[in-house]
């Protein structure tokens, strides 16, 4: 059961008159998670749930699906035709002038941009200003419980072990001159996940040489490269425990297949590693001094160093993303490139820090996971400090 008073307290802090939830055919998973609403049967008609900053919530449901929100408290308003839907919304919203919805201006934060354009027009048409619920989503959907943190830490132990085994498999194959490919390592990792009670949505990324410079490259059964001595290699892997409420662990490590690593590769790794560590330190120092820090500021810390070293044009993505029950979560992203993420990094949230430099012949990315508590910043799992000599 949701705590309405807790949500109303957050609405006051946000300076809005209420939070309006809307769904049709279960298009907004955030609404179900925040409201702790079991989806049940498919909602074939539109429903609305409004939590005002003060007073009792209201439910607006269609006449042929009147019980769709019965798990939630509040006055029930029933509509049938489009005219009664509009009048029901007017009755529901009352004198509200400024209401939060799962909407993002210019779709700047697509992870919370769930409300369609027509619905935003409908709400604005009855005289209500819409603001993004992105900050509220962070508080009520992106924050981890203590149990979720423990599930993450356990996933991390298993993923780190499998990552080590994957590099060992690659090394043994090269030493014994047995042919091995990106696809072979990909399949090894996926099978190890299955055996160890881990699940993932796709991946992992296993890439050599120029393939490393495609941040989202994945080998396929009919498209892959052989891994040979003298190759650089990158493995990006993410997984969570196969149980309810589990959250992801997401890492990237790089190595070189040979005893003598070319200086150019070492140099780029050192730049990426330092940028990663500067971003972590930026978060850690802010939390230690109880200063507010925004997602874009973390990105700035990593990006500024990479730019200073002459590789700015080759850092083509944000510094990090929120992590939750989905590998790309709904909290603040460490981003001042793809978006200017002004959301505050709040306690109880978790994200990756993964700067990268992608040159024509090879790319380097180093990814760690960061958990922000009330008084601490934790980098969970093992941290790569030097290139792996495979």
Overview of this structure, please?
There is one protein chain. With 390 residues, this protein is α/β, with parallel strands linked by helices. It folds into two domains: 4-141, Creatinase/prolidase N-terminal domain (Creatine Amidinohydrolase, Chain A, domain 1); 143-389, Creatinase/methionine aminopeptidase superfamily (Creatine Amidinohydrolase), CATH 3.90.230.10. The chain has nine helices and 16 strands. Helix 8 (263-288) packs antiparallel against helix 9.
Strand order of the largest sheet: 4-3-2-1-5-6
Q: Can you write the helix and strand succession as a string?
A: HEHEEEHEHEHHHEEEEHHEEEEEE
How much helical structure, as a percent, in the residues? Answer: 25-40%
**How many DSSP E strands?**
16
Tell me the number of helical segments per DSSP (H or I, 4 or more residues long). Answer: 9
Keywords:
elongated; single chain; 5-stranded mixed β-sheet; Creatine Amidinohydrolase, Chain A, domain 1; 390 residues; 34% helix; Creatine Amidinohydrolase; 6-stranded mixed β-sheet; alpha/beta
Q: Topology of this protein?
A:
Layout: H1 4-14, E1 18-23, H2 29-34, E2 47-52, E3 58-62, E4 75-79, H3 82-93, E5 98-101, H4 117-125, E6 129-132, H5 134-142, H6 146-175, H7 182-195, E7 198-199, E8 205-208, E9 232-241, E10 249-256, H8 263-288, H9 295-308, E11 349-353, E12 356-358, E13 363-365, E14 368-372, E15 377-380, E16 388-389
Parallel strand pairs: 1-5, 3-4, 5-6, 10-16
Antiparallel strand pairs: 1-2, 2-3, 7-9, 8-9, 9-10, 11-14, 12-13, 14-15
Helix pairs in contact: 1-5, 6-7, 8-9
